[in-house]
Structure formats: structure tokens, C-alpha cells
Design goal:
Helices cover about 10% and strands about 30% of the residues. The chain has four helices and 28 strands. The strands form seven sheets. The protein has a five-stranded antiparallel β-sheet, with no helix packed on it. A hairpin with a 4-residue loop joins strand 14 and strand 15. The termini are far apart.
Length: about 450
């Protein structure tokens, strides 16, 4: 009897250990897992993988081009801004000692950034001329119509009123082709403009995290109907940022440096009873990424598109739902109403089936689809306005996960790239990938 109980205990123990070992898939499909060429918007996609290289893929996941440098994130340059040259990118070119405050989530380990052509030749770089002798770029860089380059960077310095001796401040530099800083902006000089209550400002100053705002996005507002109708807050040259740690999105007036519009940080909690209804007033986004104004000619032009991570963030930290997931929100910035959204529910899945607590992006496509990067899992997919998944890709490129030595295929941002961005003659493939019918449906059909 004793031997039987011992054997049973060993079997149960083994079963528990086996279950724990299989808590997450150890083998999973990579590359393109579904593709309907008739419903998808056919294009290239560019991203920097966890392998610290930048990849351009076609709709079948074929590697069309690889640059051996990473971007944080990779950024494409409109050929019209570089004399018609196709295939130019902005990437990080060299590293530096990040010091004790450096991490995968800030720019303290970045020495220089630059522009590379299709063949990988460096045609412009900036770093040694930067304030402090290093670019320290993070989360965004953008080429402007005037030929200058916007760089979102970090600056470590002491700021009066903060508990920590030095903060990792967010700075924006506009850099000329000659490397001169023509315009700059510093987040700590505008803390009273972001919408914090006095009590929240006290929490910000008392934070033990020197990266107190963690601004993770910088975009140019661009041409839009709001400015055309007379709203100067949406001037095309103004800049749009969002803060992951503080749950706000804001527009900076380029002339004055003042914050002239913001959304968040204090929004009503998500009501489960109305969470699927649109339009409705904007509810609490948390730890969001990639906020930008949808450009002219695209469905939803003028609206704000943002990946709402629903990751831990806020002053104080916003409580998260137990079984909730991430969302993509399209917001009318004047009425501050959600006019379209995507969550797992739109694909008839449980909320947690679509979730990335950090990184990630979402971009509107010309046919009305939206390209989404579920960054934590290195999964990109296109959804229609109705939420149908018509293209899906899982990155096969592995590297160290942020903050650990574990392997991951995480991807910070994935960008759509039109076919006419690459040199003429660049190959591409558009072969359908059919998804097998679920076993439950097969069983039902056989009855």
C-alpha cells in the first residue's frame, strides 16, 4: 500500500511538473500564419527584431531586406524628402556605456543614430555633436520636410522638487543635416501642463523611478481637418507625444513649446457593460503606445489612433482588470469620443487573447484595415473595420527579452511600407495562406 501511494504521489508530482513546463507554448508557428490577399492591404512591413537587426518582409513573410542595425524603432524616410531615393531608414548606429540608470526602455545606451541607404551605407549620423556627446535616442526619430531630423532622447540631470537625485528626462531635439540642434524641448519644464492634479504632481515628484514619464512616442501632427477648420492646436508642425508611465497624450505647440491639448491622465474607468459600444466617451487607457493623428487620405483621417496596452501605469497606478486585454482605440480628438476600437472580443476571442502590457503599435491602412503589432509576442496582424483577422505574422527573430537573459521574439513597433518605397524590381510575394478549420467546427460538420 505504501509503495502504491508513493508511486501515485510521484505520478501526480510528475504531472504537475509537466503541466508547469507546458504553461506557455515552447514550440509555436512563426512567419505568416494566415493571409487573405483579397481582404488584406498588400504591402511590406518593416520592424527591428529582438535579434537587433531591422527586417523588411513581404506579405508571405519573406525577408526582402535586412539591415544589421536595430532601430528603437526603425523609421522609414519618405523618398520625396531625400531627392527621390528609395529605401532609406533611420536606425541606431552605435552604443555607449549606459551607466547605472540604463535599461532596454531608455536611450542611455545609445551613442549615435543615423540614416542608411538601401545598401546599408551610412549617409548621415548624429551623436558626437549631441548635448552631452551622445544622441541617447529612444522610442522615436522622424525626418522632417525641411530636411531636419526630430530625435526623442533622454537627458539625465537633477530637477528641483524630485525625490530622486537625478531624473531620466525626456528631451526632443530638432537636428539639422549639419548636426546642429535648431530647436529643443524638455518635459520637466512643462509638468503643470499635462493635466496632473496637485495630488498627482506630488506623486510624480516623489516617484522612486527616475524615468518618471517615459515618453514613448513622438510624431508630427501633420495636415488635418481640425487645423483646416481653424483649430490652431492641431497645426501640422506641432508635435504629439504620449507618456506610458503617466497615461496621457499631448500636443506640443512647436512655436511656444507649450502643451496646447492633452487627453488623460484622468479618465473614467472602463465600464464592462458599455466597453463594446461606440461611439462613447474615452475611458481609461493605460501605458499606451504609438499615438498619432491618422493622415490625410486614410479612413478616419484626423482622428487619433493609439495602442492601449492596459499595462501597469499611472499616478497613482490604475487598477487593471483580471481578465482584460489590450485595445486599439480610434478617437475623435475634439469630441474625445471613441469612434472605433479593436479588442480580442472583435475577433470573437476572450479579452486576454490580445494583450501586450508594453511596447506595440497600430497603423491605419488605405483600405480601412489596421496593422497591429502585439509587441510582447512579436505578432503582427491586419484587422478589417469589422475585426476580421486577414493577415498574421509571428516574428521568428529571437533575442534577449527586456530586462532579462530570457529569449523572446518581442518587437517594439511594426510599420506598413508601400510597395513604391523600395527600389524598382524589389521582389514580393502575395500567395494566400489558408487557416485550417478549428477541430470543433470539423466535428460539427461531420455530424
Amino acid at each position: 500500500m505504501l509503495h502504491t501511494k508513493t508511486a501515485l504521489a510521484v505520478l501526480l508530482s510528475s504531472a504537475v511538473m509537466a503541466s508547469a513546463a507546458l504553461a506557455a507554448p515552447s514550440v509555436y508557428p512563426t512567419g505568416v500564419t494566415r493571409y487573405d490577399p483579397a481582404k488584406a492591404y498588400n504591402q511590406y512591413v518593416i520592424f527591428s527584431g529582438a535579434d537587433k537587426q531591422t527586417h523588411l518582409i513581404d506579405m508571405n513573410g519573406n525577408a526582402v531586406k535586412t539591415w544589421p542595425q536595430a532601430g528603437f524603432p526603425s523609421a522609414i524616410i519618405d523618398p520625396q524628402l531625400v531627392g527621390g531615393e528609395r529605401g532609406r531608414v533611420l536606425l541606431q548606429l552605435s552604443d555607449k556605456d549606459p551607466g547605472k540608470l540604463g535599461s532596454a526602455g531608455n536611450g542611455l545606451g545609445n551613442q549615435s543614430v543615423g540614416e542608411l541607404d538601401w545598401n546599408g551605407k551610412v549617409v548621415w549620423q548624429w551623436g558626437d555633436q549631441a548635448p552631452g556627446g551622445a544622441a541617447q535616442q529612444h522610442h522615436d526619430q522622424r525626418r522632417l520636410k525641411n530636411g531636419n531630423t526630430l530625435v526623442l532622447a533622454n537627458k539625465v540631470h537633477a530637477v528641483s522638487g524630485f525625490k530622486v537625485p537625478e531624473v531620466i528626462d525626456d528631451a526632443i531635439y530638432e537636428v539639422s543635416p549639419q548636426g546642429e540642434v535648431k530647436w529643443q524641448w524638455l518635459a520637466s519644464e512643462h509638468l503643470t501642463e499635462f493635466g496632473f492634479t496637485p495630488a498627482q504632481l506630488k506623486l510624480v515628484h516623489a516617484s522612486k523611478d527616475p524615468d518618471y514619464l517615459h515618453i514613448n512616442n513622438l510624431s508630427v501632427v501633420g495636415p488635418n481637418k481640425w487645423f483646416d477648420a481653424g483649430d490652431k492646436r492641431f497645426a501640422p508642425d506641432n508635435l504629439l507625444i504620449d507618456s506610458r508611465n503617466a497615461n496621457f497624450i499631448a500636443i506640443i505647440d512647436k512655436n511656444s513649446g507649450k502643451v496646447v491639448w492633452h487627453l488623460g491622465p484622468n479618465l473614467p474607468p472602463i465600464n464592462p457593460k458599455t466597453a463594446g459600444q461606440v461611439p462613447r466617451a474615452v475611458d481609461q487607457f493605460v501605458g499606451q503606445h504609438d499615438a498619432h493623428i491618422i493622415g490625410p487620405g486614410l479612413p478616419g483621417a484626423g482622428n487619433l489612433l493609439v495602442f492601449d496596452n492596459q499595462g501597469t501605469a499611472g499616478y497613482p497606478s490604475v487598477p487593471l482588470g483580471l481578465i482584460s486585454g489590450s485595445r486599439v482605440l480610434e478617437i475623435d480628438p475634439l469630441s474625445q469620443q471613441i469612434v472605433w476600437q479593436y479588442s480580442a472580443a472583435n475577433s470573437r476571442q476572450p479579452g486576454w487573447a490580445f494583450y501586450s502590457s508594453f511596447i506595440s503599435s497600430a497603423r491605419r491602412l488605405p483600405n480601412g484595415n489596421t496593422l497591429i503589432d502585439e509587441g510582447m509576442h512579436g505578432r503582427f496582424f491586419q484587422v478589417t473595420q469589422g475585426g476580421e483577422n486577414v493577415w498574421e505574422y509571428v516574428s521568428p527573430y529571437l533575442g534577449k527579452a527586456p530586462g532579462s537573459d530570457a529569449l523572446s521574439n518581442w518587437v517594439y513597433r511594426a510599420l506598413p511600407v508601400n510597395y513604391d518605397w523600395v527600389p524598382v524590381g524589389t521582389p514580393r510575394s502575395e500567395t494566400a495562406v489558408i487557416v485550417p478549420a478549428p477541430a470543433v467546427q470539423q466535428a460539427s460538420a461531420s455530424r
